[in-house]
Specification:
Layout (H helix, E strand, L loop, with lengths): L7 H10 L3 E4 L8 H11 L4 E4 L9 E3 L5 H7 L5 H12 L6 H21 L3 E2 L8 E2 L21 E2 L3 E5 L6 E5 L2 E5 L2 E3 L7 H12 L3 E7 L3 H8 L8 H9 L4 E4 L6 E3 L4 E15 L2 E2 L5 E2 L2 E13 L5 E2 L9 H12 L1 H7 L3 E5 L9 E6 L6 H10 L9 E6 L7 H11 L6 E7 L12 E8 L21 H13 L1 H6 L6
Parallel strand pairs: 1-2, 3-18, 4-12, 20-21, 21-23
Antiparallel strand pairs: 2-3, 5-17, 6-9, 7-8, 7-11, 9-10, 10-17, 11-14, 12-13, 14-17, 15-16, 19-20, 22-23
Bound molecules: flavin mononucleotide.
Length: 495
């Protein structure tokens, strides 16, 4: 069982024990200064930062919470991301058919897995720390929202878990959407058009009703992670969070809207979005590293504010990678590989490089078994949830590690012919994508950098790779070992 952190505080205690939390006692401004400090720390792989003396506010600010792969793994109760991936793999694993006995065994496993998920669904509670204080009056100016970049349109809540409900199914969704502050009780509702939160708002619009919204700040770290993860439709984010934690998420009715909120979060903002109302949002220094242009987005009216008696404000900083959200995006790619492999078992490994801006660039290694197999994988991936946003998709053979970008570039240069091996398609692209001429739609390029086969029209013999004879390598190792001058200069061929 993974280690479940009951709340953010317990996780902070754990990080402190590990020496991976730094308390900053020097006064720092949430206007630009925290961004600069957070990014400098992040680029060195530094610890999470708890700013205890925040200029203009009595509320401490927490940054860089999940800014290393190790902290993400810890947040999900494991020592490394591979262990989280293995757990997801085990949950999804369905053995290939092997006679009636195996089928019955598999049925048992599958039912057991479903049972596990059901038992990890949220637990209803009647009290919680997130409601220790109900503010008599909402004043968002008391919360130290960061202004991350000099030309940002205003202070912005960047790491809130935004809860909305599908009015038809009653299912609650949790997604991380930024919220720019427009005034003491109004926020921008920046759910991009492809997000579940935006779809829920369209559902309310069709009914001619306002949409209730709750924004959770500082839930337990697994629930936070579930909010940003591309959880397959039909699986509740709270159940997924329960699975990640190995323990149900306790949910408590919000005080003024028909939504349930994680009981032990730091703060909750409650209110509504009127589908008929929009406001200019931005500019905002986005995860692309450039300012997203001002654009009309819906508005959240905050009607209630509850919090712990001594809340911490959790935030994050976007910008040109490396940033926390890019590190999280790459981790999602690693952890969710088993979900992709359920549909595409030939995908052996995948990387979403930080510099590729979340999903703009993806590299997948496949076990190629028929002509044009790489193209089949490209089209399947472009049809799979948020993988539709991948603008450049490089496919390599299974012996290439997608995280080894030098090797990947080598394979592209060596093995991809610009005339024959590119697949250019059009489709929906991320709302924040910059290079497309028209917002939300654009082109995507697949690069087949696998070795080419005769059956793919490659008429020449595929060249053999020039590799050194292992006997020679062994002899040279021996020579180096015996010669002090050489041994200072040359590494051994063995790692
Ligand atoms: C730090 C951070 C900030 C994000 N900000 C936004 C945002 O402002 N708008 C948005 O639509 N998605 C944003 N996302 C991405 C979504 O949270 C992510 O795509 C998530 O899977 C969406 O969930 P949903 O499909 O349930 O709506 C952000 C992600 C992170 C990690």
């Amino acid at each position: 069982m993974p280690r479940a952190f009951r709340d953010l505080r317990e996780f902070l205690g754990f990080l402190e024990e590990k020496g991976d939390l730094l308390r900053v006692r020097t006064p720092v401004s949430p206007r630009l200064e925290m961004t600069e400090i957070s990014l400098r720390a992040l680029r060195r792989g530094g610890p999470a930062l708890l700013f205890e003396a925040v200029e203009g506010s009595s509320t401490p600010v927490l940054l860089n919470l999940l800014a290393t792969e190790r902290r993400i793994a810890w947040a999900l109760g494991e020592e490394d991301l591979g262990a989280v991936r293995t757990r997801i793999e085990e949950l999804l694993h369905i053995r290939p058919p092997g006679g009636l006995g195996a089928m019955i065994r598999d049925l048992g496993t599958t039912l057991g897995q479903l049972q596990t998920l059901r038992s990890l669904g949220p637990e209803r509670v009647t009290r919680g720390k997130c409601q220790e204080v109900t503010e008599p009056r909402v004043n968002l100016e008391e919360i130290p929202f960061l202004t991350c970049w000099p030309k940002d349109g205003g202070p912005t809540l960047t790491f809130g878990l935004v809860l909305t409900k599908n009015p038809e199914s009653g299912e609650t969704n949790a997604g991380i959407y930024r919220m720019q502050r427009y005034g003491p009780d109004r926020l921008g509702f920046h759910a991009q058009i492809h997000r579940v939160g935006a779809e829920n708002l369209r559902r309310y619009a069709r009914r001619g009703e306002r949409m209730p919204v709750a924004v959770v700040i500082g839930p337990d770290p697994a629930t936070l992670f579930a909010g940003l993860a591309p959880v397959p439709e039909g699986l509740s984010k709270f159940s997924f969070a329960g699975f990640l934690r190995g323990k149900p998420v306790p949910l408590l009715p919000a005080t003024s809207v028909d939504l349930e909120v994680p009981a032990d979060a730091e703060m909750v903002l409650e209110g509504y979005v009127d589908p008929a109302e929009t406001h200019l949002e931005g500019p905002f220094g986005d995860h692309t590293g450039v300012y997203s242009l001002p654009e009309e987005f819906p508005v959240m009216h905050v009607t209630a504010w509850t919090h712990r008696s001594d809340p911490i404000y959790l935030s994050t900083v976007t910008g040109k990678p490396p940033t926390e959200d890019a590190i999280l995006g790459r981790a999602v790619g690693q952890i969710f590989l088993p979900v992709i492999r359920m549909i595409l078992p030939e995908v052996v490994a995948m990387d979403l490089p930080l510099e590729g801006l979340f999903m703009n660039v993806a590299i997948v290694a496949i076990r190629k078994s028929y002509p044009f197999h790489a193209r089949k994988v490209m089209h399947a991936l472009w049809g799979l949830g948020q993988m539709m946003f991948v603008r450049y998709l490089v496919v390599v053979d299974e012996d290439v590690d997608p995280r080894d970008h030098r090797e990947v570039l080598y394979r592209v240069g060596l093995q991809a012919d610009p005339q024959e091996d590119l697949e250019l398609v059009h489709g929906p692209v991320d709302q924040l994508s910059v290079s497309n001429r028209v917002p939300n739609l654009g082109a995507k390029l697949g690069i087949d950098a696998t070795r080419k086969w005769a059956s793919e029209g490659y008429a020449r013999p595929w060249p053999e790779e020039a590799r050194m004879d292992p006997d020679v390598q062994r002899r040279v190792d021996e020579l180096i070992r015996r010669d002090p001058t050489l041994s200072r200069l040359l590494p051994s061929s063995r790692p």
